[in-house]
């Protein structure tokens, strides 16, 4: 009862597979001594069923019954108002009240963004929150933002994303002086839209470690720790990158492969799966709201949910929202 | 002297490597009986040097001396006006006058687009030309357009791109009823920008075989023959896809590979190189101008130049500009 460990709230109903996949994923690696507790939000009967097959004796996990749920197709703003007893709205409200320190959901991205904005609110000094995602590169990983919160972005917003991304890379990725790039259609300073050109100038004068424009073909080679772009371009870029593993898998079935090539695809796909599967990464995160808000893939496996919980814990551990709030550049 | 075979004009000075790479590339596969002739535009001394090592006896190839050249960084419109004796301007002028039927250059994309627009002009009924490029998929290839001519596009322009792409896929790729998709951040009809939503409605009513929005992760799986998008998004998407081979190459050098994985990368990279290298594809093409205008990669190898000449020949053979001009939907 005096357990003061921070609580991570998990929407047990989110994603394509619900509690049977989310619950074991969330509990992955949890021990009696874990530095955080878990609270599973959702239909109590289905959560208990999912917990039934697991040994949870003595683990710091609790269930928060919710009688409503938000469908994937629902209008986010209406759902936030109309479904106070859905896992996302209850968990976010509990975060606002300090009962939990993070919310993880594989449910509707729109509902997560809306609930975070409406219930938690923006951090001081943040014009627009961004959805950010880690992307594996040849050398490590980078943070790409925005990947979908804002279809169009102003120069101020893009510069703000660069600041938030730099702080994330320093605190969470452990990069002392993160290199920041702007995704663009050419390397030269005057390439791209008017917004690109002005953002380039502003980033050069920002005091950040801005290394210039980055074209899509250099994105995965590891030159940058943080790459900023608008949410439309970022979302399409992210999905093209995520599609590579599936593309390689489909290629391995092609009838025109030689026997040697066919045999070689197995180990290469294994390496890609081990290092570059979206499951290894923590899902997307909303940066710039007053709290921790992690959006796992809708088709998340248990492994992907485990990664999302780990991402939430990293942000709590490093007090990312607190540091984002006090950063002015 | 009475040779009536169509002439393909090649800018011998274009690209990072100039005549030493462009000339042998252009001559690849050329025989005395080839259905087209080649004209090499540029510095006659350097072209003769490049021809020196090749056996061109009896081949249908000629040299058109040009004393000027357009630099990659030059303002395209100024270059077109100020350098009438550059390979791109002379060749395009010769196309306008009917002396040649296509221009291939690995020089400045901007100069090629500007020269095509100013000298050849748009086809009747075409609002904006698009830069299109073939992209290899698991099942074959698709045509992506626009990949850079128009940073922003109107609904009319995107619908026009879908019509031009459909004709290309039918005539050149040999697909009876080409499937058209719109690149977007989600599959549902109302996803994306206002322009995406309206384009979706217009394409549904267009009589084309519109299969809906396509997300980046499905792009390479082969569901579409034609994918339309604005030139900004398309350019970034194209480069991310092109960067994939380089990414795989860099991965093959990673120290954390097992011996088995390291050995397996060789054959897989060989397969990718054989099937998915940009060198195999014909470079980009400008669709919607009154002629054939093929833009090869600036860092083109001889193999890439050979592919670009082949692309030019395909468009001449099928009279693509003539068919695009008479298509009204």
Provide the CATH topology of the largest domain in chain A: Isopropylmalate Dehydrogenase
Strand order of the largest sheet of chain A: 3-2-1-4-11-10-5-6-9-7-8
Structural class of chain A: alpha/beta
Distance between the termini of chain A: 41 Å
Largest interface: A-B, 46 and 46 residues
Total separate domains of chain A: 2
Helix content of chain A: 40-55%
Give the quaternary arrangement of the chains. homodimer
Average the pLDDT over all residues of chain A and give the rounded result: 93
Largest sheet of chain A: 11 strands, mixed
Give me the secondary-structure topology.
Two copies of one chain form a homodimer.
Chain A: E1 7-11, H1 19-27, E2 37-42, H2 44-52, E3 61-65, H3 76-82, H4 87-96, E4 102-105, H5 109-120, E5 130-136, E6 141-145, H6 155-171, E7 179-183, H7 194-204, E8 209-214, E9 226-228, H8 231-251, H9 259-276, E10 284-287, E11 293-295, H10 302-317, H11 320-326
Parallel strand pairs in A: 1-2, 1-4, 2-3, 4-11, 6-9, 7-8, 7-9
Antiparallel strand pairs in A: 5-6, 5-10, 10-11
Give a structural overview.
Two copies of one chain form a homodimer. With about 325 residues, the first copy, chain A, is an alpha/beta fold. Chain A folds into two domains: about 1-125 and about 290-329, 3-Layer(aba) Sandwich (Isopropylmalate Dehydrogenase); about 130-280, Isopropylmalate Dehydrogenase, CATH 3.40.718.10. Helices cover about 40% and strands about 15% of the residues of chain A. The first copy, chain A, is built from eleven helices and eleven strands. Chain A has helices at about 20-25, 45-50, 75-80, 85-95, 110-120, 155-170, 195-205, 230-250, 260-275, 300-315, 320-325, and strands at about 5-10, 35-40, 60-65, 100-105, 130-135, 140-145, 180-185, 210-215, 225-230, 285, 295. Chain A has an eleven-stranded mixed sheet, with helices on both faces. In chain A, strand 1, helix 1 and strand 2 (about 35-40) form a beta-alpha-beta unit. In chain A, helix 1 crosses helix 10 (about 300-315) and helix 6 (about 155-170) packs across helix 7 (about 195-205). The two termini of chain A are about 40 Å apart. The mean pLDDT of chain A is about 95. Chains A and B meet through helix 8 and helix 9 of A and helix 8 and helix 9 of B.
